[in-house]
Automatic annotation (TrEMBL):
Main localization (coarse): membrane
Transmembrane residue ranges: 12-40, 73-94, 103-127, 153-174, 195-219, 253-277
UniProt entry keywords in alphabetical sequence: Cell membrane, Membrane, Transmembrane, Transmembrane helix, Transport
UniProt protein name: ABC transporter permease
Residues annotated as domain ABC transmembrane type-1: 68-272
Family according to the record: Belongs to the binding-protein-dependent transport system permease family. CysTW subfamily.
UniProt xrefs under InterPro entries: MetI-like, MetI-like_sf
Taxonomy, superkingdom: Bacteria
GO cellular component: plasma membrane
GO BP annotations, alphabetical order: transmembrane transport
Species: Rhizobium vallis
Membrane-topology annotation of the record: Multi-pass membrane protein
Location in the cell: Cell membrane
Length: 288
C-alpha cells in the first residue's frame, strides 16, 4: 500500500533530523543528565562521585563566591567593552566602506581566529609582562606598573579574544540597513547624531543583542584568559570547575557549580531573546 504524501514528508523529515538529534542526545543531553545526577551526590573518599541524594553541594556554593562574583561582573563588563569597540568597526564596514573593499576588510576581522587563542593570549602575557609595556614605562621614568595578573589584563584579553564575535552580528544587521531611510532622515533636516539614535541604532539592535548574548554566554564559561592573564588571582567559574574536577576531584561540587552555570546561561539567553523580540516587534510597528 503506497504511503500518503504527508507520511512520506514526515518520514523524510525524520530521516534528515534523526542524525543530528541522536548526536545532540548522546553528546549533550546524556552528559548533562550525568552532571545533574553527580550534583546531588557526594564526594567519594578517594575522590570522584559517590551515590547519594543531598543538596549539600548546592548549599556550599558560597565557598566559590569569588569565582561567581568575578564571572558575573567581568563577563558583562567584557561584553559591553566588546560592544563599545565593535560597533564603530561594524558601522564603518557596513555603511562607510565601498563594496569593492568590504569583503577584504571583513575577512581581516576574522583573521585572528586563524591562530589559536592560546598563542594569542601568550602574546598578551609578554606584552603586559615585565618585559613588555611596564619595561617601556620604566624607561621613561614610570616605575612599579603591574599590568599582568589583574582584572584589567583579563578584560583586555576578553576584548581582544571575543571582539570578532561581537563585530559580525552587528555588521550583518547594519549591512541590511535600508540606506533610503538614512537619506530620507538627512533630507528632512535631521542631524547625523539624531539619525543614528533614531534609525541606525534601533534597526541594528537585534544584531547588538545577538552579539552581547553570544559573547556573554561564552565568557560565563571562560577558563583560558583568566588563567593566563589573571595568573590565578582572577578566578572565573571555568577555573573553579577545572580545579574541582581535575585537582580536588570533587565531582559532585563541580557538577553543582556546572548546573548553576547552565541555569545562569539559560536565564541570560532568555532575557536576551525577550529583548530582541520586543525590539523586533517595535521596529516592525515603527516601520509601518
Amino acid at each position: 500500500m503506497p504511503l500518503a504524501p504527508n507520511t512520506k514528508k514526515r518520514l523524510v523529515t525524520a530521516a534528515l533530523v534523526a542524525p543530528a538529534s541522536i548526536w545532540l542526545f548522546v553528546f549533550l543531553v546524556l552528559p548533562f543528565i550525568a552532571i545533574i545526577v553527580f550534583a546531588f551526590g557526594e564526594r567519594a573518599p578517594e575522590g570522584g562521585y559517590q551515590a547519594a541524594f543531598t543538596f549539600a553541594q548546592f548549599a556550599n556554593l558560597g565557598s566559590r563566591a569569588a569565582a561567581f562574583k568575578n564571572t558575573l561582573i567581568l563577563a558583562p563588563i567584557g561584553a559591553f567593552a566588546c560592544l563599545i569597540v565593535a560597533y564603530p568597526v561594524a558601522y564603518y564596514l557596513a555603511v562607510k566602506v565601498s563594496a569593492k573593499y568590504r569583503l577584504l576588510l571583513v575577512s581581516l576581522v576574522v583573521v585572528p581566529f586563524w591562530t589559536s587563542l592560546l598563542v594569542r593570549t601568550y602574546a598578551w602575557m609578554y606584552i603586559l609582562g615585565a618585559r613588555g609595556i611596564p619595561h617601556l614605562l620604566e624607561m621613561i621614568g614610570i616605575e612599579n606598573v603591574r599590568l599582568l595578573n589583574t582584572p584589567g589584563a583579563v578584560l583586555l584579553g576578553i576584548v581582544y579574544g571575543y571582539l570578532p564575535l561581537m563585530i559580525m552580528p552587528i555588521y550583518v544587521s547594519l549591512e541590511k540597513l535600508d540606506r533610503r531611510l538614512l537619506e530620507a532622515s538627512a533630507d528632512l533636516g535631521a542631524r547625523p547624531l539624531s539619525t543614528f539614535f533614531g534609525i541606525t541604532l534601533p534597526l541594528s539592535l537585534p544584531g547588538v543583542m545577538t552579539g552581547i548574548a553570544l559573547v556573554t554566554i561564552l565568557l560565563l564559561g571562560e577558563y583560558l584568559i583568566p588563567q593566563l592573564l589573571g595568573g590565578g588571582k582572577v578566578f572565573f567559574i571555568g577555573n573553579a570547575l577545572v580545579d574541582l574536577f581535575l585537582q580536588s576531584r570533587n565531582w559532585p561540587f563541580g557538577s553543582a557549580i556546572a548546573v548553576t552555570l547552565v541555569v545562569v546561561v539559560v536565564i541570560v539567553l532568555l532575557i536576551a531573546m525577550r529583548i530582541a523580540w520586543r525590539v523586533a516587534d517595535t521596529r516592525q510597528v515603527d516601520l509601518v
